[in-house]
Amino acid sequence: MGMKKIVICSVLLVMFSSLTIAQLPNLSKDITGAAGPGKLLTQFVGALKPSSFTSGWAAVKDGILGKAQKTTDPTQLASSISSIAGYIKPDMFKKDSTTQNSIAQMATKVTSMAGVAGLLKNLEGGLKPTAFLSSWASQRTGWLSALNMIK
């Protein structure tokens, strides 16, 4: 009787494992798509207070974010990040830190998705905490982890 239970459990385990493994490629594709640079850029922009932007931001926001979400080209994404930085009020940047000009200069050197992730980290790290909504504190760790996965 004991041997019969072991055989049945083994068969069920193998069947369940096969079904699970068959689903992994789709799962990894979903995770990768969900954490793409365009999506992370949109999440970052959504975490900024509307008052952190200049008055011209509202007119260009949809165009810049729409373009960023549709592209997989690192240079275009870097250009979008640079554009966004240009619409953030200068007083939202930390003193002696990343500035709009340094983001623009760094953006011209980006050639890879890892470079895009680094540029976005530099922008986020160069802003004062007051530039962000209070909800950003709880989102930031996951957002940074997702950026670190971009290669």
Summarize the helices and strands and which ones pair or pack.
Layout: H1 2-34, H2 37-47, H3 57-70, H4 74-86, H5 100-107, H6 113-125, H7 136-148
Helix pairs in contact: 2-3, 2-7, 3-4, 4-5, 4-6, 5-6
Give a short synopsis of this structure.
The protein is mainly α.
Description:
This protein is an all-alpha fold and 151 residues long. The protein folds into two domains: 1-33; 35-148, no CATH class. 70% of the residues lie in helices and 0% in strands. α3 packs antiparallel against α4 (74-86) and α5 runs antiparallel to α6 (113-125). The longest helix has 33 residues, at 2-34. The chain is elongated. The chain starts with a helix and ends with a helix. Residues 17-34 have low confidence and may be disordered.
Tag the structure with descriptive keywords:
151 residues; mainly alpha; 2 domains; elongated
Oligomer: single chain
What is the N-to-C succession of helices and strands? HHHHHHH
The total beta strand count reads 0
Uncertain segments are 17-34
Number of domains: 2
Please tell me what the overall shape is: elongated
Report mean pLDDT, rounded to a whole number.
83
Give the radius of gyration: 21 Å
